[in-house]
Predict the structure.
Amino acid sequence: MTTHVKSDNLEIRGIPVEVVHKAIKNLHIGVHPPSGRVRVAAPLRLDNEAVRLAVVSRLGWIRRKQAEFERQERQSQREFVTGESHYFQGRRYRLKVVEYDGRPTVRLLNNRTIELRTRPGDNREAREAVMWHWYRGQLRDQLPPLLAKWERKAGVTVKDLRIRKMKTRWGSCNRDARRIWLNLELAKKPGSCLEYIMVHEMVHLKERAHNERFRTLMDQLLPQWRLHRDMLNQAPLAHAAWRY
Ligand SMILES: [Zn+2]
């Protein structure tokens, strides 16, 4: 959940642009993977017309960046074949695909190899679905002890903790329902990163905005939180610049 001083959504020459006005000196335009989302941080003194002009003057650069992300996204598409690298809980594993005439499964063979058993003739989508099913189960298993620990430490109650695939966020929350969503991609990340996102969303149940109070609460609960945030932002995977 993100709250800002003032934020607007504009459409400039067919491109959706999120504009955040805040107390800064210079205008900054960012193009963010994986989808090429355009975000502008603008000084409070600039109105949307000035922002529009600034964006139009950088249109060529924005379109080039978006094309680059689109290319990267296509390249990072996995085929789920033997020899590919896949991440699990922050470690890189080599995938070994075995054709097997039974229930498809995934298991860790050792600390270097993930074995994916699929039915003979299963296509890429079917193999991928088996992997995601496994990731979801693994992530779900990690949650109860973490939740119990942080509910106690943060003094908040989470009514509902769910997992889903998200394109642009690691987590989100609904304060009224006291519900937290975690990105299924976190199954691939170190446990410390999962823990950071969970704490981040739990702190949002107390404080909606990323303000001073929010940062103070984070500092008290997880003094190293910035490290985990930076680790998630630098991950060599498809999603390099999330909102944390
Ligand atoms: Zn947040």
Summary: The domain at 85-234 is CATH 3.30.2010.10 (Zincin-like). The longest strand covers residues 91-99.
